[in-house]
Amino acid sequence: MATKVLNLDKLRIAREVIINGVTFKVLPLTVREFIETEGLEKKLEAMTPMERMKTVVEFVGKHLADFGDEKVADMDLEMLLAVAQFLRGSDDNTEAKTEGNAPAQ
User: Fold this and answer.
1) Residues near 52 by Cβ (< 8 Å), separated by ≥ 6?
2) Are 104 and 96 in contact (CB under 8 A)?
3) CA 77 to CA 73: how far, in whole Å?
């Protein structure tokens, strides 16, 4: 009798962000974190602009391995917002990478 196996490790897609020539691994969102970010969007609307910015900085710092809030706070606003969107699953500004770490053509 054959055994069927669902290997969830094969479903993982490695995601990275390159900032100033340095590559940072994106830590995946758990289901719980994804649900929390959905609720967070509604809370953000009620926050002051400064509270919103601090929340986005914390979110990005938490999900970029070895990056941290301090480095996030030094990013320009356009980069910060692009990274935040990418972390939430938007791949509008991404490049596919092939084996050997070169972007796909």
Assistant:
1) 44
2) yes
3) 9
